[in-house]
Write a sequence for this structure.
């Protein structure tokens, strides 16, 4: 079983739409959670950390549900520039981070 | 800011050849790691290091060696390349302290083994 699982998509949405991704993780001892963004043929870059109480950064909202072991990312008012692959990342050992395979988002005009 | 620098960006190897992927960071980060990324698999940890002189295995270490003689450098050696090692390789670094510290990635090395 994979440590972190994501729907690969693609999610095809029009500009201005709201879209949400979920990610499930297998280890209940997981301590920290992140969303990374990866553009085609580029390196991953941190989008946002995910806190237990949920957190927001502009149009992006992240939620954590420890009981069900999933995290979510909500993107409001999608922009063309949001088109990318979104990677869910989980850590339960300080030295090891587990990456999901990513969810691809295509925002269309 | 240089950040994490990887070389080469592209490489084609023949089966059985050896090579070293270079990685250097200028942020004085204690923690460095190597990942490979394959379609549908996500990033998988190959080896990591928590400081100079200390290395450990990740999820997929077979066929790879690493060393960490300085804080700045963390080269990845392919001992005898196999087609299964065709992948994109990312070097990464982060400060050791703090669970929420950002991982910084290099731009990636595209390796093809024929």
């Amino acid at each position: 079983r994979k440590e972190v699982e994501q729907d690969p998509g693609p999610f095809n949405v029009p500009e201005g739409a709201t879209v949400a991704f979920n990610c499930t993780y297998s280890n209940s001892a997981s301590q920290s959670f992140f969303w990374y963004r990866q553009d085609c043929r580029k390196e991953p870059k941190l989008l946002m950390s995910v806190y237990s109480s949920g957190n927001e950064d502009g149009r992006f909202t992240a939620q954590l549900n420890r009981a069900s072991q999933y995290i979510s990312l909500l993107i409001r008012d999608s922009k063309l520039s949001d088109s990318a692959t979104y990677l869910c990342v989980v850590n339960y050992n300080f030295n090891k981070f587990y990456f999901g395979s990513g969810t691809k988002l295509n925002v269309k005009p | 800011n240089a950040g994490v620098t990887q070389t080469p960006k592209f490489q084609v190897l023949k089966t059985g050849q050896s090579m070293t992927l270079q990685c250097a960071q200028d942020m004085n980060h204690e923690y460095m790691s190597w990942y490979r990324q394959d379609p549908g698999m996500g990033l998988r940890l190959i080896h990591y290091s928590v400081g100079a002189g200390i290395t450990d295995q990740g999820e997929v270490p077979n066929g790879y060696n690493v060393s960490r003689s300085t804080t700045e450098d963390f080269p990845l050696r392919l001992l005898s390349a196999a087609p299964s090692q065709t992948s994109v390789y990312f070097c990464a670094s982060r400060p050791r302290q703090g669970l929420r510290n950002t991982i910084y990635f290099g731009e990636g090395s595209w390796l093809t083994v024929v």
